[in-house]
Design brief:
2 copies of one chain form a homodimer. By secondary structure, chain A is an alpha+beta fold. Chain A has helices spanning 3-18, 72-81, 121-127, 145-148, 169-175, 178-183, 188-200, 254-257, 271-288; strands at 40-45, 48-53, 57-61, 88-92, 96-99, 104-107, 137-139, 164-168, 207-210, 215-217, 220-224, 233-239, 242-248, 292-294, 302-308, 311-316. The first copy, chain A, has a 7-stranded mixed β-sheet. In chain A, a hairpin with a 2-residue loop joins β15 and β16 (311-316). The longest helix of chain A has 18 residues, at 271-288. At the A-B interface, α1 and β1 of A face α1 and β1 of B.
Chain lengths: 323, 323
């Protein structure tokens, strides 16, 4: 029986059942909406306005060695204990727009339409009323596909045609080196080199490389948090006494990698360094109650990190229905 | 200096500064949006569609005895440790709409416009494309103002004119009793009796009273969770093998009352019974990994409750940008 037939029959049965009740109101069967609310979220940060603009999310089927130093059964168990869809890790992608009053800055650009439920940045920006042509600066935390692919539209044109594109100098040197590409292992790392060539191959003279500890946009400082990639960078966004620490990929899914900060995710270029960076960042975050934006934290990805057990835990900021 | 003048000057200064850089893009200063995304969230539950439709949120300044059996300093400390605005508890209000395919059911109706940041249910429904005239059934978990006031518009007309209004029979008997009102303490409890008269005074013959353990709408069963009010009711919403437990006010802010389930919030009619109910519900929720909707949990208020320390903790469901 088709869904429509089933519904029709159920509808007819319901109509028969209520017919004798003269006092019953005029029941209206509303169609299922089937459409999520636009996925952006606004927050004030001093005089700045932050808009988290989702690029979507997807359950990643766990590959055989998702965490290098832990048996996959343990990872599967932890993911399931964290209520993730069985056999997967749920990965959101959260670029953010910072309106500093003088500049409109986009941090990271999403994966592009590689799957039906990602590459949603253009529609999130549109829903938030942000015209891509008004983005002044694009900052890249590190040169992985899910952070850089959105720099170009599927037709190869620039998604943010008026923006200065700024990338970490150390990552540029690493990822644009053909010798490094030749040595890269198959799969994720080879693919990452490919994404970089696709996006940056014809714009080598148009990309600004930045160092750590610099003001890369008004009120935004680049901070060394290397390990996940050689040039992985976080950003401290500050206005007045308010600060937000955009952590990029210091850790991935918090239920797995804050709880177990010593787990080596397969995407880390330098796993030991990534672990040391993670502990350094989160020890500081916990001590200073830093407000953090996590690119792979559950949308909108804003919150605080606390020590818990031998690791850490995320305390998500409560959703504020007004700004 | 006005904000406009300041911006104008800063804009001029910026223009001067970048003028020599011929290669610099045409910087656009986008206005601050200042407007939050519409606050609703959709989720599938078997064949049902759930839409959490926010009535808003507000920081409640802590009264001298917010928790009856704990010194206020301890409560203030816990609230601050949970990153709440100093001296306040942040309270969201999360009514939900269940589309069962045959009926459109609203559970709880919000506070009405008693403050600028609450009474937002009508605009959340509008944003979600839900016409109040299409609501078939309104279910009330308990007869406190922040759950019933939205039944009427500020002009006294019915907000859901075609809906059958269904309230817990035990709460009706308690709150509509003039003797109980005469005995009520000043403040919150007296005010609650007042709200009930304002909303229900002229519709005594139009309200359906339901008992516990009944199917009060298709696929929705009323469950006794008394203590917060004498007739406080939760709802199990079930479609196929999927279930959602709408807990109403079994607990308020999770950072305070899941962590400390024995704290007696000043709004509980029967504090000891409320504690026993809370532990009974959450012990079961933890054991069965029940999916829970919390009216005062951070929006959208969906997640799971786990045992933690001597109490519990909320694991919020990750936001899904697609449905």
């Amino acid at each position: 029986m088709t869904e429509m037939t089933r519904r029709h029959l159920l509808g007819a049965a319901a109509a028969t059942a209520v017919a004798p009740l003269a006092a019953a109101p005029a029941f209206a069967t509303a169609p299922v909406a089937g459409k999520q609310v636009p996925t952006y979220y606004r927050s004030k940060l001093g005089d700045f306005e932050i808009t988290v603009v989702s690029d979507g999310a997807r359950p990643i089927p766990l590959p055989p060695r998702f965490v290098l130093n832990v048996p996959n059964e343990e990872v599967l168990k932890a993911a399931e204990a964290a209520y993730m869809p069985k056999g997967t890790v749920f990965a959101p992608f959260n670029p953010i727009v910072v309106n500093t009053g003088s500049k409109l800055v986009l941090i990271d650009t999403g994966y592009g339409p590689i799957a039906p439920t990602v590459g949603m940045l253009p529609q999130s920006l549109a829903a938030a009323g942000i015209d891509p042509k008004t983005i002044d600066i694009v900052l890249i935390s590190h040169m992985h596909g899910d952070h850089i692919n959105g720099i170009k539209n599927p037709d190869g044109s620039l998604a943010f045609p008026n923006a200065e594109i700024k990338v970490p100098a150390v990552d540029w040197t690493y990822w644009m080196d053909d010798g490094n590409m030749a040595k890269a292992s198959e799969g994720f790392f080879k693919a990452s080199f490919g994404f970089n060539r696709k996006i940056f191959g014809d714009m080598k003279d148009k990309v600004t490389r930045f160092d750590w500890g610099k003001e890369v946009a008004p009120g935004i400082i680049s901070v060394e948090t290397a390990g996940h990639t050689p040039g992985h960078t976080s950003f401290v966004i500050a206005s007045g006494s308010s600060k937000l620490f955009f952590q990029g990929d210091v850790s991935n899914a918090p239920a797995l990698f804050l709880t177990n900060p010593d787990w080596q995710i397969m995407f880390d270029s330098e796993p030991d360094k990534a672990i040391a960076t993670r502990r350094r960042v989160y020890d500081m975050a916990a001590a200073e109650k830093m407000f953090i934006a996590g690119y792979h934290f559950p949308f909108p990805g804003l919150g605080w990190v606390e020590k818990a057990g031998t690791g850490y835990r995320l305390v998500p900021a409560p959703w504020n229905p007004v700004i």
